[in-house]
Amino acid sequence: MEDFLESLFVTLKAILLLILSTIRNLFPTGFLPRKDVRGQTVLITGSGSGLGRLMSYEFGKLGARIVLWDINEGGNLETLKELESRGVEGV
Ligand SMILES: NC(=O)c1ccc[n+]([C@@H]2O[C@H](COP(=O)([O-])OP(=O)(O)OC[C@H]3O[C@@H](n4cnc5c(N)ncnc54)[C@H](O)[C@@H]3O)[C@@H](O)[C@H]2O)c1
Questions:
Q1: pLDDT in tens, 58-88
Q2: Could you tell me if residue 50 is left (phi over 0), alpha (psi between -120 and 50 degrees) or otherwise beta?
Q3: What is the mean pLDDT of the chain?
Q4: Predicted structure pTM score
Q5: Which residues of 35-49 are buried (b: 16+ CB within 10 A; e: fewer)?
Q6: Which of its termini does the chain have fewer beta carbons within 10 Å around, N or C?
Q7: Ligand 1 centroid to residue 51 C-alpha, Å
Q8: What pLDDT is recorded for position 29?
Q9: Coiled-coil ranges per the record (predicted)?
Q10: Which class does domain 35-91 fall in?
Q11: Looking at the predicted structure, is the pLDDT value of residue 44 above 90?
Q12: Exposed, middle or buried by CB within 10 Å (0-12, 13-18, 19+), for 59?
Protein backbone atom coordinates (compact mmCIF):
# COMPACT_ATOMS: atom_id res chain seq x y z
CA MET A 1 0.00 0.00 0.00
CA GLU A 2 2.84 2.36 0.90
CA ASP A 3 4.55 1.69 -2.46
CA PHE A 4 1.31 2.36 -4.30
CA LEU A 5 0.79 5.70 -2.52
CA GLU A 6 4.39 6.73 -3.18
CA SER A 7 4.06 5.84 -6.89
CA LEU A 8 0.79 7.77 -7.06
CA PHE A 9 2.39 10.81 -5.39
CA VAL A 10 5.38 10.79 -7.77
CA THR A 11 3.11 10.37 -10.82
CA LEU A 12 0.82 13.24 -9.75
CA LYS A 13 3.83 15.46 -9.00
CA ALA A 14 5.33 14.67 -12.45
CA ILE A 15 2.01 15.52 -14.15
CA LEU A 16 1.74 18.80 -12.19
CA LEU A 17 5.32 19.80 -13.09
CA LEU A 18 4.66 18.93 -16.74
CA ILE A 19 1.57 21.15 -16.78
CA LEU A 20 3.43 24.02 -15.06
CA SER A 21 6.41 23.85 -17.42
CA THR A 22 4.06 23.75 -20.43
CA ILE A 23 2.32 26.91 -19.19
CA ARG A 24 5.69 28.63 -18.52
CA ASN A 25 6.81 27.83 -22.07
CA LEU A 26 3.77 29.58 -23.54
CA PHE A 27 5.20 32.95 -22.42
CA PRO A 28 7.90 34.68 -24.49
CA THR A 29 11.49 34.51 -23.14
CA GLY A 30 12.16 37.21 -20.56
CA PHE A 31 8.47 37.75 -19.75
CA LEU A 32 8.51 35.82 -16.47
CA PRO A 33 10.98 36.76 -13.70
CA ARG A 34 14.15 34.70 -13.74
CA LYS A 35 15.99 33.33 -10.73
CA ASP A 36 18.57 35.85 -9.51
CA VAL A 37 21.99 34.16 -9.26
CA ARG A 38 23.97 37.33 -8.44
CA GLY A 39 26.36 36.51 -5.58
CA GLN A 40 25.33 32.83 -5.65
CA THR A 41 27.85 30.01 -6.09
CA VAL A 42 27.30 27.99 -9.27
CA LEU A 43 29.17 24.73 -9.88
CA ILE A 44 29.69 23.90 -13.56
CA THR A 45 30.81 20.39 -14.48
CA GLY A 46 32.81 20.05 -17.70
CA SER A 47 33.83 23.73 -17.49
CA GLY A 48 37.13 23.08 -19.31
CA SER A 49 35.59 23.31 -22.78
CA GLY A 50 32.45 23.44 -24.90
CA LEU A 51 29.08 23.96 -23.27
CA GLY A 52 30.48 23.96 -19.73
CA ARG A 53 32.87 26.79 -20.61
CA LEU A 54 30.05 28.77 -22.26
CA MET A 55 27.77 28.20 -19.24
CA SER A 56 30.58 29.47 -17.00
CA TYR A 57 30.78 32.69 -19.02
CA GLU A 58 27.00 33.11 -19.06
CA PHE A 59 26.63 32.61 -15.28
CA GLY A 60 29.64 34.92 -14.82
CA LYS A 61 27.77 37.64 -16.75
CA LEU A 62 24.86 37.18 -14.33
CA GLY A 63 27.13 37.94 -11.37
CA ALA A 64 27.53 34.42 -9.98
CA ARG A 65 30.68 33.05 -8.37
CA ILE A 66 31.71 30.06 -10.48
CA VAL A 67 33.17 26.77 -9.28
CA LEU A 68 34.89 25.18 -12.29
CA TRP A 69 34.93 21.38 -12.32
CA ASP A 70 36.68 19.38 -15.02
CA ILE A 71 39.13 16.49 -15.42
CA ASN A 72 40.89 18.58 -18.10
CA GLU A 73 42.97 20.84 -15.86
CA GLY A 74 44.52 22.83 -18.73
CA GLY A 75 41.15 23.66 -20.27
CA ASN A 76 39.73 24.49 -16.85
CA LEU A 77 42.58 26.94 -16.15
CA GLU A 78 41.93 28.61 -19.52
CA THR A 79 38.28 29.08 -18.54
CA LEU A 80 39.37 30.48 -15.17
CA LYS A 81 41.77 32.97 -16.80
CA GLU A 82 39.07 34.16 -19.20
CA LEU A 83 36.57 34.57 -16.34
CA GLU A 84 39.09 36.53 -14.26
CA SER A 85 39.85 38.79 -17.24
CA ARG A 86 36.11 39.55 -17.28
CA GLY A 87 36.16 40.39 -13.57
CA VAL A 88 34.30 37.24 -12.53
CA GLU A 89 35.28 35.30 -9.41
CA GLY A 90 36.01 31.67 -10.27
CA VAL A 91 37.64 28.84 -8.34
N1 LIG B 1 27.76 20.36 -28.09
C2 LIG B 1 26.48 20.06 -28.37
O3 LIG B 1 25.87 20.57 -29.33
C4 LIG B 1 25.71 19.11 -27.48
C5 LIG B 1 24.35 18.91 -27.74
C6 LIG B 1 23.62 18.08 -26.89
C7 LIG B 1 24.25 17.44 -25.83
N8 LIG B 1 25.57 17.62 -25.61
C9 LIG B 1 26.20 16.95 -24.48
O10 LIG B 1 26.64 17.94 -23.53
C11 LIG B 1 27.87 17.51 -22.93
C12 LIG B 1 28.97 18.53 -23.15
O13 LIG B 1 29.15 18.72 -24.56
P14 LIG B 1 30.35 19.57 -25.11
O15 LIG B 1 30.14 19.73 -26.56
O16 LIG B 1 30.51 20.81 -24.28
O17 LIG B 1 31.57 18.56 -24.87
P18 LIG B 1 33.12 18.85 -24.59
O19 LIG B 1 33.84 17.58 -24.85
O20 LIG B 1 33.57 20.10 -25.29
O21 LIG B 1 33.16 19.19 -23.04
C22 LIG B 1 33.00 18.19 -22.07
C23 LIG B 1 33.92 18.54 -20.90
O24 LIG B 1 33.61 17.65 -19.82
C25 LIG B 1 34.82 17.25 -19.23
N26 LIG B 1 34.62 16.00 -18.52
C27 LIG B 1 34.49 14.76 -19.04
N28 LIG B 1 34.34 13.86 -18.05
C29 LIG B 1 34.34 14.56 -16.88
C30 LIG B 1 34.24 14.18 -15.49
N31 LIG B 1 34.07 12.92 -15.14
N32 LIG B 1 34.29 15.16 -14.56
C33 LIG B 1 34.46 16.45 -14.91
N34 LIG B 1 34.59 16.85 -16.20
C35 LIG B 1 34.52 15.92 -17.17
C36 LIG B 1 35.78 17.13 -20.39
O37 LIG B 1 37.14 17.21 -19.95
C38 LIG B 1 35.39 18.35 -21.25
O39 LIG B 1 36.11 19.51 -20.88
C40 LIG B 1 28.22 16.15 -23.54
O41 LIG B 1 27.70 15.15 -22.69
C42 LIG B 1 27.45 16.17 -24.85
O43 LIG B 1 27.14 14.86 -25.29
C44 LIG B 1 26.32 18.46 -26.41
A1: 999 999 999 999 999 999 999 999 999 999 8
A2: left
A3: 95
A4: 0.78
A5: eeeeeeebebebbbe
A6: N
A7: 7
A8: 81
A9: none
A10: alpha beta
A11: yes
A12: buried
The dihedral over CA atoms of 18, 47, 83, 81, expressed in degrees to the nearest 10, equals 180
What per-residue confidence (pLDDT) applies to 90?
Answer: 85
Residue 8 Cα, ligand 1 centroid: separation in angstroms? 35
CA of 87 to the centre of ligand 1 (A): 25
- Residue 34: the pLDDT is 83
Atom 37 (ligand 1): residue with closest C-alpha? 72
Q: Which residue's CA is the closest to the ligand 1 atom numbered 26?
A: 46
Q: Whose CA is nearest to atom 18 of ligand 1?
A: 50
